[in-house]
Amino acid sequence: MKLQLAIIILVLIIASCKSHIGIYCTKPNYNGFCYELKKNGEFKYDEGTCTFASQGIGKYEITGDTIKFRFEDFEIKRGNYEIEKNKEIEKGIMVDLSVVDSQSKEPILAYSAAIYSNGVLIGGEVGDLNGKAELVAAYNENPVNIEITFTGYHPLNIEINEAGRYEVNAEIVRGGVFPIRKQEWIFRLIELNKDSMVIGEFDIYDWSRTLYRYEEKK
Questions:
Q1: CA 45 from chain center: how many Å?
Q2: Reported pTM
Q3: Do residues 149 and 114 make contact, with C-beta atoms less than 8 angstroms apart?
Q4: What is the DSSP string of 158-186?
Q5: Is 52:100 a contact under the CB 8 Å cutoff?
Q6: 163 within 8 A of 92, measured Cβ to Cβ
C-alpha cells in the first residue's frame, strides 16, 4: 500500500511539472513578451515593442512563491552562407551570389554587396529581382571581404582567402533583435496553471502581469 501511494504521488508530481511546460505571453499591445518554459528547467524569453526586440535563454527555478529566470550569455544568429569554389582563376575573384530572407526564403531584391580588401572598397554590385549578383575583384594575396547589407536586416560578412570563382548562397536575418546578457530576474509567482501565469515584484509596488498560455496549432 505504501509503495502504491508513493507511485501515485510521484505520478502527480511529474504531471504537475509537465503542466508548467509551455509558452506564456502577455496580450499584444504596443509591447509584449513571452516566456517559453521548457523541459529540464530551461526557458526562452522574447520581447518586442514598436522599435526593438530582444531575446534571452537560460534556466528557470520555481521555489514556493518565487520564480527565478537566470539568463545565459548567447549570440543571436545574424545569418549564414554556403560557399563553394568551382573554378581556379589567377589573381582574381568572381562570385556568383544569391541572397534570401532567412525565414521566408524569398529572394532579397536590391541588396548591396560591397567588396573590401584591407578595409578599402574595391568593388560591389546590387542584387537583381531574383536576389542574385555577380561580383568581380582583383586578388593580391590579401583576404577579400564581401559585406551584404539591406535595410531592416543585419549585415552579413563573407571572407574569401584564395583567388578563384565561387558560388555563394546566403541567408540574412531581419534586424532589431538584441540578446539579453547574463543576469537574473526574480519575480513573485502569484499563479501558474495550464491556462496562465501571473507574476509580480517583491517590492512596495503592488503590480502583477498576467501571461496567457499559447496553444500552438497542430
A1: 11
A2: 0.57
A3: yes
A4: EEE-S-EEEEEEEEE-BS-EEE--SEEEE
A5: no
A6: yes
Contact 92, 136 (CB under 8 A): yes
C-alpha cell, 99? 541572397
Residue type, 95: V
- The model's pLDDT over 63-83, given as tens digits with 9 standing for 90+, comes to 999 999 999 998 877 789 999
**CA 25 centroid distance within chain:** 18
Cα 155 to Cα 23, 34, 40, 88: the distances in Å are 30, 27, 35, 28
For residues 178 and 77, what is the distance between their CA atoms, to the nearest angstrom?
A: 10
The stretch 175-188 carries a mean pLDDT of 88
In b/e form, how buried is each residue of 141-162, taking b as 16+ CB within 10 angstroms? eeebbbebebeebbebebebee
pLDDT digits (tens, 9 = 90+) for 22-70: 999 998 777 889 999 998 899 999 887 766 778 899 999 999 999 999 9
CA dist., res. 23 & res. 215, Å (int): 8
Question: Which of the four pLDDT bands, split at 50, 70 and 90, describes residue 14?
Answer: very low
Alpha-carbon gap, residue 138 to 214, rounded angstroms:
54
Relative to beta strand 156-160, strand 120-126 is unpaired
Q: Is 39 helix (H, G, I), strand (E, B) or coil?
A: helix
For residue 91, give the amino acid letter: K
